[in-house]
Amino acid sequence: MDNIYIEYNFTIAPKEPATEILIAELGNVGFESFVENENGVTAYIQKEDWDANILENIFVLNSDEFSIEYKQNEVAQTNWNAEWEKNFTPIQVNDLVSIRAPFHENPNLKYDIVIEPKMSFGTGHHETTHMMVEHLLNLNLTNKKVLDMGCGTGILAIFAEMKGAKPTDAIDIDNWCYENSIENVSRNKCKHISVFEGDASLLVDKKYDVIIANINRNILLTDIKAYVNCLNDNGILLLSGFYKEDIPIIDAEVSKYDLKLETFIERNNWVALKYNKL
Hints:
Blueprint: E1 4-13, H1 18-28, E2 33-37, E3 40-46, E4 67-76, H2 77-87, E5 91-93, E6 97-100, E7 111-114, H3 126-137, E8 146-149, H4 155-162, E9 168-172, H5 175-187, E10 193-197, E11 208-214, H6 217-229, E12 231-243, H7 247-255, E13 259-267, E14 270-277
Parallel strand pairs: 6-7, 8-9, 8-11, 9-10, 11-12
Antiparallel strand pairs: 1-3, 1-4, 2-3, 5-6, 12-14, 13-14
Helix pairs in contact: 3-4, 6-7
């Protein structure tokens, strides 16, 4: 029997940073998935986890800085799956990498990543995913030990293996993402990726040559110390999931640990930073 979901359609003005804050707050009360769109975001929660007062303590909805309106309705999971098919468009990076679903045509680029996003996918991550892939394209990953923190669908871990990384750990706190990453790792015939469900507490006594963290700003600020502690000398830290205006606060935190900002990429005000450990 298909699960029943409650769907909320939020119209947000201005969109940022209200959308990012709203998604973070909704995630804390049990919403499982989000699809960003031109006017805001659509959020989904299983009916069994929902109650009529679930938005009562969502701070951003009461903020004077933003105008947020919403409508809700009930949908079956099968309808949701059709929704992500409709919203998930393939990504191509530098005419070298394609990221697509099984139902998309293969453009026959050098690297072809096939994912089936299901509930763990949000179209709003296109910019950050694109930029992280750009960074990885420019790195020699042969036999490098890699961490993909907040792996989502597993895209970046999968691409790292395609570029020669081994072994790679992929970690996400969300159970949907954990399950979906396992599926996508198998779908892309990866042999050197281990997927874990959890947070930065799993990083004790771990060491990596390259760490990828495509997560929201507040989690990054909390966990940067943990990342640095498990980064090998001359290692590389790639950070994304935040806006250009956030660079000073991110850089101030990372700089405490003798990492140097080497370069960053920007797309539609999203940024991805590359740090080297001195």
